[in-house]
Amino acid sequence: MDAILILGAAVWPDGPSPTLRRRALHGAALWHAGVAPVVIGCGGLGRHPPTEAAMIASLLLDAGVHATAILQEGRSTTTIENIRFALPLLRSIGATRVVIVTDATHGPRAARVARHYRLRARVSATALRGSHPPTVMRQAVRELFAYPLYAARLWRMPRDD
């Protein structure tokens, strides 16, 4: 079985951030296209309620994803935690492969984390249309530093076997 894993992004005081909305709607489109029967929203509580996972679930429901196809991982606050905390959910449904939904700039790091946890993963990035160009540039620069830091951190981390 496969699963779609939507990585969290900020919840703003008035609702989902544009990034979170794009990710959730992209995940819904993948589900409607039959890519996987289960969608897992990831992300804990940030500055504003609800959790990112709960907001993803709400957006998925609004986009016509069946409630029985939605699972939530609502404790994580980092990319490593998104994937590590989703592992028990993935195991409970027998998922052997995941499609990670995130932004193109974040995809390589997320895939690296998934490989660390021995997941067969591919990234399906959201479209850049509607993105704020300075934000995308900041994200790309952040990833230049974050990827090697995460690689070093993962090298020292157990795989939770």
TrEMBL record:
Pfam families: DUF218. One of its GO terms (cellular component) is plasma membrane. This is DUF218 domain-containing protein. Residues 2-144 form the DUF218 domain. InterPro entries: Cell_Envelope_Assoc, DUF218, Rossmann-like_a/b/a_fold.
